[in-house]
Amino acid sequence: MKTSRIARETAFIAKNAEIVTRRQTRSSLTTSIRAFAAENAADLTVDQDNAVGSDSSSLSSIGSSGVSDIEEALVPSSARKRKRGIDSPSTTVTTASTIAVATKTSPRKANIKTQDGSPARIKKGRKQPFKRVVNDSGEVTIHPPANWQEIYSAVQEMRKKVLAPVDTMGCESLAEDTRTPRDKRFQTLIALMLSSQTKDTTTALAMNRLQTQLPPPGLTLENILSVSPTLLNGLIHAVGFHNNKTKYIKATAVILEEKFNSDIPDTIQGLISLPGVGPKMAYLCMSSAWGRDEGIGVDVHVHRITNLWGWHNTEEPEQTRTALEAWLPREKWHEINHLLVGFGQTICLPVGRKCGECTLSTRGLCPGAVAEKKKKKVVVKKRRRGQV
């Protein structure tokens, strides 16, 4: 069948108009998404204070623009159509009223600002590890890190200015003062067992539930022996690995009653023989419960920070303990754990170290000091379309 020239041209125009419409739809969709991002970029904030060992983050709600979902920013295609005519005025669509700037920084980089807001100058220190020197006669002489006393004193001064969770909720402070010495030692041991892979705040909460929700007189060896595993597990469910810790605590109570006269062991070997108790817990328990410093309790903070300072190069906490005990004065064996745990909770964080607030970085004493990563700017510009 023959087709007239007018019919062929009409079909060609209709086909091209359909293609243009589709292209405009895609462009309009992209424009709407960009407008949504620009209007809401200023209202999105990220809470970075609760990130390591220990922390959670949250996004603030979107408030000023009145748009809670991106679908609400997409305008239907019918609303985007414009009537064209001789008397129709030209229209201008602005995709963004302001230019939004977003900055991205690495979470592991430092916020290098001093307390007054001025930029802090970071000076990366040089590693000065302890050394073992063997003379001709075979005698071994230990030389401590050359600047360890300066570092130690600086950290002590910084710790005085900031209160850390370990200062108020550490395992040493969780035993009830009104209890007998035997019950206080037992509560200290239980607190240490609960603290593994758990934040201090969570450990304190679990200890409080044991002390107040177990039958009178509360957290004692006798009550742990008689309580059901189900109830005990429910009381400590907030701590990490609570199922295993329930088994360890129940088994430990039986061992203490049968082998240690219903008291905790007074030797490192005896403490390590208990289920779920390792060297770190044993040394901390000996120091806190019995008042004897027989070794250094090395946890992840002590292990990480002392390696960061270049005092030694160790891969495991037990290696760190051996290295520190070789030269650190014995009177500091007990306090170094509390000192560095609090330092690691407030300034030298596992993720996002605050080198700008640390005097070690500004004085060139920390080999691990890092500067802030250069910020990348993402700019959403104004776009105009539809002007005839």
Give a topology summary.
Elements (H helix, E strand, L loop, with lengths): L4 H37 L35 H4 L12 E2 L5 E5 L26 E4 L5 E4 L4 H14 L3 H5 L11 H15 L4 H14 L7 H6 L2 H7 L6 H18 L8 H5 L6 H11 L10 H9 L8 H9 L9 H12 L12 H4 L13 E5 L3 E2 L3
Antiparallel strand pairs: 1-6, 2-5, 3-4
Helix pairs in contact: 3-14, 5-6, 5-11, 12-14
Polypeptide structure, described:
- The chain contains 15 helices and six strands.
- With 388 residues, the chain is mainly alpha-helical.
- A two-stranded antiparallel ribbon has the order 1-6.
- Helix 3 packs across helix 14 (335-346) and helix 5 runs antiparallel to helix 11 (279-289).
- The two termini are 42 Å apart.
Low-confidence stretches: 19-24, 40-81, 85-110
Strand order of the largest sheet: 1-6
Shape: flat
- Record field, number of beta strands: 6
Question: For the report, how would you describe the main beta sheet?
Answer: 2 strands, antiparallel
Give helix and strand order, one letter per element, not per position: HHEEEEHHHHHHHHHHHHHEE
Descriptors for this entry?
388 residues, 15 helices, two-stranded antiparallel ribbon, mainly alpha, flat, single chain, 6% strand
Give a short overview.
The chain is mainly alpha-helical. It contains 15 helices and six strands. Mean pLDDT is 78; it is low at 19-24, 40-81 and 85-110.
